[in-house]
Every structure is written in C-alpha cells, then in structure tokens.
Write a structure and sequence with these properties.
Elements: E1 5-10, H1 12-16, H2 20-29, E2 33-37, H3 44-50, H4 60-67, E3 73-78, H5 82-90, H6 103-107, E4 116-118, H7 122-132, H8 135-138
Antiparallel strand pairs: 1-3, 1-4, 2-3
Helix pairs in contact: 3-4
The structure holds adenosine-5'-triphosphate (ATP) and magnesium ion.
The site of adenosine-5'-triphosphate has 10 residues, from strand 4.
Length: 139
C-alpha cells in the first residue's frame, strides 16, 4: 500500500481554543499537503464507530462523549512516509510525555483532550479518510 497518505482530525478542545490556524500552519510547515479538509461534528454514535477499536477500554464512553462535544476538523494529508512522520509531529498520546515542539505538547489539554488524531497505519489512514470524505471530495 502507498505510504504517502495519512488522516488527521483536530479534536474539539483545540477547535474550541481557537487553534485550527496554528495547527494547520505547523502541518503545512512540516511538509504535508492538505488534500481534503472540513469543519464538522460527530454524533456520539459516529464517534463510537470511529474509535470502535477501543470499545473495551475503560475510557471509551468518556472518549465518545468528548469527541462529540464540539466541532472537529478532519483532514487527509499527503507526504512521503506520511503516517510515521505525522505521528512524530503530533507527539505522544499523553501530552505530559509528548516531545517538545510537538502539536500535543503545545496544544493538548489532557490525555483525553489531546488536540489531534493521527492514523497509526497506512491501512487505517485510508479507512479513516473514507469515514469523512467521499471520493469526489478527496480530489
Ligand atoms: P489517536 O488515535 O486519537 O491519534 P493515539 O493513537 O495517540 O490517539 P490511542 O491509544 O489510539 O492513542 O487512543 C485514542 C484516543 O483515546 C487518544 O487520543 C485519547 O483521546 C483517548 N485516550 C487514550 N488513552 C486514554 C486514557 N488512558 N484515558 C483517557 N483517554 C484516553
Ligand atoms: Mg490511535
């Protein structure tokens, strides 16, 4: 599978804090091209579908409530080695453990409200991108 595409979404805490511009600037300056982007919301049910892989985890219900609590900005990004490079740019899940200069270090509020999502594999990048964008919207 091609390794030049990833999926991200700016989460409700970062949208609410007015950080869409600062975060998209960092993404572009790191060499990613924004292929698709929109401002939207998830219902609790759709948030549950998106994070279904975590449904047995103790934080799942809170995570679904949080992810449906406000606007989000999903995006499809293009760059060579996109998935791995983007995970480096966003930093560790827990902002307390995130490296200096990463998006989560700069903007995340907590391990749950951690500002941004990044796909963890090429396969999931395609699945997650398709969750928000149709073929026509992507190109
Ligand atoms: P994401 O999938 O959003 O990019 P991630 O891959 O770094 O994040 P995951 O383990 O996939 O981390 O967890 C998904 C999301 O669930 C996290 O980004 C965070 O919002 C929330 N989460 C993860 N672990 C916890 C926890 N221990 N307590 C509360 N929320 C958590
Ligand atoms: Mg994940």
């Amino acid at each position: 599978m091609a390794n030049n595409l990833t999926f991200t979404m700016i989460k409700p805490d970062a949208v609410e804090a007015g950080n869409i511009g600062a975060i998209t600037k960092m993404i572009e300056e790191a060499g990613f091209t924004i292929r698709a982007m929109k401002l939207t919301r998830l219902s609790k049910e759709r948030a549950g579908q998106f994070y279904a892989v975590h449904k047995e985890r103790p934080f799942y219900n809170d995570l679904c409530n949080y992810m449906s609590s406000g606007a989000i900005v999903p995006m499809i990004l293009v760059k060579e080695n996109a998935v791995e490079d983007f995970r480096k740019l966003i930093g560790a899940t827990n902002p307390k453990e995130a490296a200096e200069g990463t998006i989560r270090k700069l903007f995340a509020k907590s391990i749950e409200a951690n500002a941004i999502h990044g796909s963890d594999s090429d396969e999931n990048a395609v699945i997650e991108g398709s969750f928000f964008f149709s073929e026509t919207e992507k190109f």
